[in-house]
TrEMBL record:
Subunit description: The glycine cleavage system is composed of four proteins: P, T, L and H. In this organism, the P 'protein' is a heterodimer of two subunits.
Gene3D superfamilies noted in UniProt: Aspartate Aminotransferase, domain 1, Type I PLP-dependent aspartate aminotransferase-like (Major domain)
Keyword annotations: Oxidoreductase
One Pfam family of this chain: GDC-P
Glycine cleavage system P-protein N-terminal domain span: 3-442
Family that this chain belongs to: Belongs to the GcvP family. N-terminal subunit subfamily.
Keyword Oxidoreductase: yes
Species of the source: Candidatus Auribacter fodinae
Record-given protein name: Probable glycine dehydrogenase (decarboxylating) subunit 1
Gene Ontology biological-process annotations: glycine decarboxylation via glycine cleavage system; nucleoside metabolic process
Amino acid sequence: MMDYVPASQSDREYMLKEIGVSSIDDLLSCIPAGIVRPKLDVPEGISEFDAAYQLKMLAHKNKRVDHYKCFLGAGAYDHCIPSVVPALASRSEFYTAYTPYQPEASQGTLQAVFEYQSMICELTGLDAANASLYEGGSACAEAALMIAGSGRGKTDLILAGTMHPWYRDTVKTYVKHLGLNVIDVPHRNGVIDAADAASAITDKTAGLIIQSPNFYGCIEENLAEIVQAVHQAGGLVAMSCNPLSLSVLKSPGEYGVDIAVGDGQPLGVDLQYGGPYFGFLACTNNLLRKMPGRIVGMTKDSQGRRTFVLTLQAREQHIRREKATSNICTNQALIALRGNIFLSWAGKEGFYEMGRQNVQRAHYAAREAANIDGVTVSFDKPFFNEFCLNFESVKASAVLDKMMADGIFGGVPLSRFDALNDKMMVVCVTEKRSKDEIDSWIMSLKKAVRN
């Protein structure tokens, strides 16, 4: 093996002579020596086999969802992933593909993205979708930028207090220097009250972002009324949603929402330490040119054959520079491909059945948990596959530590997002959890609360 050296010794000597220095050291003499060649406190190199062994030993310290019964949620979920998903997504045609700027050499990648966009449109009930974004949080933030860019001087952006806290933080970071006034509407009993939303809406309202099912698992029951109120004020509504929930719930388009966003992780993507995932974004036709990121379109070539190309590229950063609709100039094509394969594998009936099982198993778990002394379901609202529990006299983190000792990831403590909220946790029950596993979760929860 030899180092990759793009220039020969004679090449380097010629270039140094041209710029008037005799060596690389002379070229770097203006930089402090401690920066150029810092002394690093690292051990001596070891063999490949020793390094692999050490990494395996470190990996064994991880607590993995295939070794524990997993009831974690709050944005990342343990769902069934059929073997066809990694088998196809890892094919070299997809795995090593680069940006498809040359459509004549990229028809496979472009067709896969076009099919993905088509499926997202079907799920959300909206007219157009982009080729994907980074994850759910940045998708929410891009929706905020679309709202800001369409506001025509309007300065208020309303965020539902039931959105994932990290999504709200991401949005606020993105719009910090855009002159927008961000207004948070707090929840009542786990959802946004229509009257509270109406009181925040004025003629300055550019738009509102809401999540349903929301961070607490509740389905926003006043969504249609809130959408109507925002539209009457001349604003736009963006809705963040779990794509799997759309198998059994009304789509954003049916509510009259202008922009739908979310995280595609439930669609065939492993938990993998919190990422990479893919964000999805769809919108109505009148917002198409405001949409960020790549868009693949279908057309015909000079011989009349169906072809796929990147379209409406004049919106993008590599052409419009600082006037682009967004600084997103890529997409999560490989991860979104997993969503594409997953949805194709499931089909409409399979996708509905998966959603139905999430609903039934989660509601069974919630009913059983509510029968435990000292435990209550936090909100009396409809939910999909997540719900919150309150503890009367113990901290949620203490309960979860005891459940982990039983080999169960029991839920996510809300103190992770709000230090004052230490007696509540959010629980997710997916189609992977059998009745025996749910019953084990109930028994462990009961024991943890009593002890």
